[in-house]
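Students often ask why we bother encoding 3D structure as a string. The short answer is that it lets us treat folding as translation between two languages. Here is a chain of 694 residues written in the first language.
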Amino acid sequence: AGLQGHKFIAAAEMLRYTGAPWSQTQINTCSNFIRAVLLPQNKMYGGGNWGIIGAISQMAAGVFMEDEAEFNDSLNALKFGAPTECDMGVVNYIDPQGWTTEADRDLGHWSLGLNNVAAGTQIAWCQGVDLWTYLNNRLLTGHEYIAKYNLSNSVPYAPVDQCDGYSNGSITSDGRGRWDLIFYEQVFHPYQNLFGVSAPWTWAGITNTRNYFLTNSGIAAETYDRDHVGFGTLVFALPVRTAGLPVLPSGLIANASNGIVRLAWSAAVSATGYKVKRANSRSGPFATLTSLATTSYNDSTVANGQLYFYKISATNAVGETADSGLASAYPSAAAPATPIGVTAKTISHQRIDVSWSASLGATNYNVKRGTSLGGPFTVIASNVGTNFLSYANTSLPANTTFYYVVTANNALGTSADSSASGATTLPALPSPWTYADGGYVTTPGNATYTNGTFTVRGAGLDISGFQISDSFGFAYLNLTGDGEIRARFASLASYSTIFKTGIEMRDSLADDARHMLVYLSDNDLNMLYRTSAGSTATTSGSVAVTNIALPYWLRLNRTGNVFTGSASADGTNWTVINIRTNTLNSTLLVGLAVCSRNNGWLDTATFDNVSVTGLWPSAVSTTPVSITNSVVGNSLKLSWPADHIGWHLEAQTNSLAAGLQTSWFPVSGSSATNLLYIPINATNGSVFFRLAYP
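And here it is in the second language, the structure alphabet:
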């Protein structure tokens, strides 16, 4: 869907616009397939190559579906990285000196990422967006670096602080000297022949690639494989640039105000003048507004309420360059339009995410929150949404409903509030359990507990394996000294068969912490362990239980520094998977771990019959107890002792005159906690609460 997806979409785009006998109904069918099948997979951004590949196919999908919001999301992800990823995006992926976060892996994966950034850059350019010159030609810097290195030259390198990828602390030698792994054609021609930027090492890479195939197959061919389209001189070649032309202008920005658009751009080498061009649509036609010698221009011939597109060309005595990438602006005499499409989404017991659609003319946005649909609303975030039209509201109380509105800002003012959207945080896990995203944080997960069943949702690229950095969802409690966790792994909804889900003991939530894990992956049970922080893990000595079907029982025991992992089909007859010595901390985190092996996808696992020595299930007191109450903001905070988790809260709402009656209703989620926040509704005459058991 990612690595090959954008190629299929490009093929569909060519069929659509080259006279193929393709009806509108068939085009719509293709578009629906892209939106429903390919697009969801590609928006699950991952680190390194995964995230870049996903963003590129999302970009291609946005173009085919003519969905500018999807295109812009992918463009921002490719430039800046995704909100849940630490090493995605050109700014994080390619170092200013040229190496990438895959440079310590092998030449194949290293070049794969660069080639795919180039593919996305070409897609963007076809829509008028210039990523070629982004961050001072960062993409070319990456290609010049790898070509120079592959020609056995010394290059600078510093170990990459890679939060979620393979890292061996030094630049790779695996594949060095091979010329069938990287595709230089698609980068060389735009930089050398369109922009006029010298690319000597990249040209050396092309020369060596052609000589490589001439030597090995008798044909001076261009590299290709299943991941890359070949025929570079046919697909990517451009006319040789006229000597002496200026470098193509770059860095164009357009800022709009009342009746005016202010343009500025970077000076182009060898330019003596510039032409400013404008259009009323992205695809043109672009008409020349003026010729000038400076690198700025104020367009006062615009009308308010109209979206304009601009490009720049550079001139000198030799001639005129091609047009630059475009910039757009929306002049207005008023504040932006009120945002639409505001959506609040529950993420966990502490987090709600808010998203919205772009407002024409807006430079940024404010997010407001309230506890009732009609407000009042208080600003919780100002001037957000400059890159991504979303906001994560964290550190919220559990099991509480909040409502959100968004306003749009520009230099002329702030819009009215949007329509409100509400969401309710998940109930907290019963004490002493808690949930956290272990290791580095990708897509945040969550966990709930209902009627004896834990439901844990977790993403993450891996737990150990060849990764030094773990990432996973973890519902856990603290265990001091000897003890045991056992659970029946009841069900799993997973992204793929390579998930890792099971029960775990580990020193901490740190991504490289020592740990012991009894886990299921691809229908096989195994035991994985890391014996020193910062190292990879191993299954050495384990006897896998194969071809199992859920539900299945898991058990992990600690006696001193000896850990025993076992599995059972019935919870009575156990098979030992492994017994290993590991010097873990005296106090451990022990619990239920879920890793989808995809940073953008939450696997959902359920566990029942969970027990942890001396800690869970805790004895439920049957002695009646009082409810403690206080007012917090616009909510009533109700709490009761932890040994009464398992009791449930009941309520009744009556008129003030009626007072206490005999009809009670249960409060959802109350049996799994000892703390609730109940929104205060002033229209209720009287509200009564009580605890009931069972």
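Translate back mentally: The radius of gyration is 30 Å. Keep this in mind for the problem set.
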